[in-house]
Amino acid sequence: MAQTSMPEHILHVGNAWLESWGPSETLQTVGKAIPKRSGLDKVTGRARYAFDVQLPGMLYGAIVRSMEARGRVVAIDTDRAAQIPGVRTILTPANFPTLPSQGRPALSDQVRFVGEEIAAVAADTEPAAHEAARAITVKYEKYPAVIEPEAAMQPFAPPLTPTGNIGGGGPEIYERGNIQQGEAEADVVYEWRYATEVQHHNPLEPHGCVASWHGQELVLWDSTQGVHMVKDGLAQALGLPLNRIRVINEHTGGGFGSKNGLKPYHIIAAVLSQRSGRPVRLFMTREEEFIASHHRAKSRHIIRAGVKQDGTLTSLYHQIVGQAGPDPEGIRMAVAGADCTKHLYQCPHMKTELYKVLTNTQSPIPCRGPTAAEDLFCFEQCIDELAHELKIEPLAFRLQNYAEMDPVANHPYSSKGLKACYEYGARVFGWQWRPPGTVREGSKYRGIGLGSIVFHGTAGEQSEALVILQNDGTAQVVAGIAEIGVGAETILAQIAAEELGLPVAHVSVRYGDSQTTPYTINSSYGSRTTTLGGPAVRAAAFEAKRQLLTLAARELGVTPDTLSIKEAQIIDQGTPPRRTPVREITRKMGRELIIGVGTRHPKVEGMEVQTFGAHFVEVEVDATTGQVRVLRAVCAHDAGRWVNPLLAESQIQGGFIQGMGMALYEERIMDPRVGMMLNNHMHEYLIPTILDTPEQLVVLDAQTLDQSNSINVKGLGEPPLVGAGAAIANAIYNAIGVRIRHYPITPDKILTALHHPTVRGASRREQ
Amino acid sequence: MAQTSMPEHILHVGNAWLESWGPSETLQTVGKAIPKRSGLDKVTGRARYAFDVQLPGMLYGAIVRSMEARGRVVAIDTDRAAQIPGVRTILTPANFPTLPSQGRPALSDQVRFVGEEIAAVAADTEPAAHEAARAITVKYEKYPAVIEPEAAMQPFAPPLTPTGNIGGGGPEIYERGNIQQGEAEADVVYEWRYATEVQHHNPLEPHGCVASWHGQELVLWDSTQGVHMVKDGLAQALGLPLNRIRVINEHTGGGFGSKNGLKPYHIIAAVLSQRSGRPVRLFMTREEEFIASHHRAKSRHIIRAGVKQDGTLTSLYHQIVGQAGPDPEGIRMAVAGADCTKHLYQCPHMKTELYKVLTNTQSPIPCRGPTAAEDLFCFEQCIDELAHELKIEPLAFRLQNYAEMDPVANHPYSSKGLKACYEYGARVFGWQWRPPGTVREGSKYRGIGLGSIVFHGTAGEQSEALVILQNDGTAQVVAGIAEIGVGAETILAQIAAEELGLPVAHVSVRYGDSQTTPYTINSSYGSRTTTLGGPAVRAAAFEAKRQLLTLAARELGVTPDTLSIKEAQIIDQGTPPRRTPVREITRKMGRELIIGVGTRHPKVEGMEVQTFGAHFVEVEVDATTGQVRVLRAVCAHDAGRWVNPLLAESQIQGGFIQGMGMALYEERIMDPRVGMMLNNHMHEYLIPTILDTPEQLVVLDAQTLDQSNSINVKGLGEPPLVGAGAAIANAIYNAIGVRIRHYPITPDKILTALHHPTVRGASRREQ
């Protein structure tokens, strides 16, 4: 019935494996420190966030949240709220639609933590919406609640599920070798306990969206880390086909893991909009951010290590208890993990046990370096303790147990620059270890510390992108990414420009619309935007270039393989060489543009992809006030090729500072009787400010070229946070000679430790 | 250096010529009367127009316009304006940037008509902006101006250019055969004079945009007929590469030709935004719409026809004088044309002369059926007069001179359904011609009239579109069209759904963003959205289907040519036949979507593409008041296949009613001494309202399948207007027996003609 000139077997053009570009020195654009494209707009207030979206006739939403940690709603009185002028729609569990989504509905009369969604309103103004939400009165039948994981693990704790309070009914276990044998082979076995607390993501832009129905289509302007993941989630939750949901996002004011995928407020906003026939804006207040936008799980650790006197690790046992919140379905990798413990050292005998404990507190969600931060904050302090006990210089101890091959799968690494990070970092830092408590000036102690980093890469995942060549010779990347502040737009432009041989200013990037972009990433989590999106964009650019050179070859009367592109000139390698501006060829296209589709083509079989790093830190501890000040840090990272050193530097600085927050300041303070957070505002929940940042924060590139993808990159979003805590804790120990094993290391803990030194007591079991 | 699996010669997949689908009866979706997708949003006020866009920190712009018809600005005093609270930026010719664009800058001290742009302001509020614009005082050196074309053609008229006031220095001439010979062969030669007046486009949403700079990129939310044409125009005007300009448009509240491409307000808004560092909204007031958004040209016609007594046309001379405004560079097809005269009848000897006369009035611009309406309003009245003079029934006279082959190029037509329009229309109307002035009831006369339509098609132009298949089996069309109200979104969804074998609800269309869509059209003018975009979308869907069937064949273990798709099921024609839901196959794609690129592949060599139609009208003329009422109309159209009869009907109804406006009500009333429009508001410039529309407006489909493209369509946006005027005028003549040859046929003209019948005098030259 119809004809086509294409061979039938070809599905995608441009999805072949591409050879790496080789060292950065030979490149024009990739590897250059180009400022972030949206930077000026952001500092001048011009960047438009979902928070800023205004639509004609838009209403404002507000959510009524549970005041009880566990119970059933027996009555909701909305009469007073309905009479507040401007109130348009009130949703309660009674009139909320039945949706096909699994699990707890977005509004429900079953409540499992303080802050859970019960009802919602939409009104003409934001004050009217909040007034109405406050005017709705809720009566509860209270159930016995458990707030703290320790309490939840007690034998007679109220059970949250029929099978008790341990998610999955028991611990997740990983073993290699034989832990008994490893401990038997050790000269000494040490055991210490560590703890980390809840850290909140605290994005500058709160969580929220503007929902609007356009005919049969739901359009959502969302503050998100990924338009596709929200779209897919909404499709499933609302039972809509994908073509009827459009999620738009221009800029996101931070996410750090808390803005991936579907949340109750998306569904509530969509239903409020449908009921009222008007667009609805629904954003969290800062208080709601603390009690209902999720957080990093708190964790309790027992680490037992067997060592020989010469410094060889023979065994590692790592038990983690993580607080999982109320939802057995919701337990994911956010709660607890010992992945870094497994990968970091060459230790033959190992066992990890992870307990995910259900409590009547909100569910945790991945937070920048999820589980890895909790793990390494503790494990890399333990390593420091071991070195100290064995009287081995801590860097030497780490090198002694260095894993050349990956110890989990016994695979070679796609690249491993950890040794370079140690050596380069130590040199630049001027690393010279000294005994604890030996540098002091008045009440002020100084100490230095070191922490290592290992963090999983993104191996075999799919990614797709488009590159369009316009008829004036400029290019347009179309990529399904979110610009969550890290500079992905700039990086993808650099990658396309490099492949196309165009100046980077001639390449722009369109993103942030689920209906005009492919799944370049589904969401910007797991340090994956560059590692997934970059190779797809390069492949799309390669395919666009192939089409361009085919066209150029026709015009110039040569074969395409004699042609290449540099500085927007097509170069014919013939004798004599000829140069033709790209735009002279693209102009011939008229209104048929070159559209290159490219897919990521990873090469990961039999290869382990991990990122690495080492942080060197100097601190000052004031023994009078207990204040800790990070004086300087050198952060050396192996993230494969750095596409843009300026943006890499920003990532490392931002990550390190957020890690400082987790190490020194941030914790949720709960009333364990009622499950209410007591410090749910920025005056009492402290995050680092510019005054807390080290004056020197040096960033180093290990200069590896990773072999798992065509642009030689690994991720860099999360490792800098993951590596901050132990380095700081180790430096504090080096300063004052007392171990603090419970993060955050706040002044009260320093003072207690200094005045009651027995608190530092680690149990020591001699063999 | 890099490898690819693709043969080197393939540029685009999916650009092969596709065979037509065949008759509509065999189709599932195309040909069905599906409601316009955005209809509900529009009637409920939810559709977001550029007019509705609100951005954070947005300023409001206003333009200072010339009060003189011709002169030079010698002084501008902005002091008072600058002191108005909220005023942020004032632009004058003195501080306006020098831009690479040709012609008059967007702001200039040279003024050539009342309403031309001199200065502009941006302020925090709209009232402040307009107050500031009024507070700016301008001093002029006045030059002698000419307002009316008749005056401009006088020997001693002030010359607007060194070569005088005729654009191009003289008339544009078309000749076939030999006009002298044709007149010599005639039995009688008749000559009459006709006139049409300025018609304003009057879109419901005024002209304007919101301009915002995002870093180096200009983003413009524009009320436009085409994002690409505005983008291309801005790139040229501002000297920016295409990748740095993004033009966005969700819905346009009407354009009718006046919102194609670049206008001064685009440039002014962009510069105001750049200077102020803030987004700037700049929309015209209704008064500005009349004096500065362009209009249909007024025209003066002399038509001289030679006929034999048996009714054979032997010669046609058609002279048109069109009013071109002040800009010799700006003279385009908007001003005057006799294209319809050339194509409509089989007349061997013909000459047309087009004078485009420069005046100090704003430039005309194409208005729905540009030049064709002016031409046919007059020419098809002339044909009626000839039939009357020869005492031949007017429909019979037209059929006698019917052109089977195109008389201009002597080519066959890609399709011609005019005869079907005549026959079907006459039958449904109950066409029975009767002598003029014979049906009367009291002061009310009734008459019937007929008018034919020919209008150019869109032959060999390029078009490109994408179709993306999502992993849940739904589809996304990505098309660079504007949704100016005609239902293009719905039509393109139907075309893709038909080709893909999916329900139309599973296909959505993304459009209206210059940076994520290909050039499906550059702008929605010339009745081209379906004729250009439709075949490209079909080709893209065909290519997406090819990829899908290739994937399905792999999964099912068959060859792709045994597979087809119907109702979202992949059908394997084997024994026994198997059905597999499309989504079962697409689910296997994971996050690599199927992306089909398609280009229009027209087949037009040696073929003339024209659309046709015939309108039959009955009017009532009140001899006491001079009021004309159109009682009923039957509009038969040959536009090739009707993809959506409901939307086709809307187009025809809207076009006919707008044509009624031009025929009966609409005209610009000028003060010829100063060049000021006197009726620049909707109280005195009258357009048809719902009370003026005929009670019966029947629409007929000639059911041709055009051969020039793969979906068998021709355009339908403009012909309905083009055919309204002569049919109405002929019916008025048939009612009262007096000819009114000067549109609009207002009550005063009716009364004058009835009371001073000599005015009707046509010169008649006997041979």
Model description:
The structure is a homodimer of 767-residue chains. The first copy, chain A, has 767 residues and is α+β, with helices and mostly antiparallel strands. In chain A, 26% of the residues lie in helices and 24% in strands. In chain A, the strands form seven sheets. Chain A has a seven-stranded mixed sheet with strand order 3-5-1-12-9-10-11, sandwiched between helices. In chain A, β18 (464-469) and β19 (475-479) form a beta hairpin. Chain A starts with 38 loop residues before the first helix and ends with a strand. Chains A and B meet through α1, β9, β18, β19 and β20 of A and α1, β9, β18, β19 and β20 of B.
Percent of residues in β-strands of chain A:
15-25%
Strand order of the largest sheet of chain A: 3-5-1-12-9-10-11
Report Rg of chain A: 28 Å
- Low-confidence parts of chain A, pLDDT < 50 over ≥5 residues? 1-14, 759-767
* Biggest interface pair, counts: A-B, 93 and 93 residues
- The level of helicity of chain A is 25-40%
Task: Determine the N-to-C terminus distance of chain A.
Answer: 82 Å
Determine the number of helices of chain A (DSSP H or I, runs of at least 4 residues).
Answer: 19
Broad shape of chain A: globular
Mean pLDDT of chain A: 93
Give me the oligomer status: homodimer
* Annotation, overall tally of beta strands of chain A: 30
Classify the secondary structure makeup of chain A into a structural class: alpha+beta
Largest sheet of chain A: 7 strands, mixed
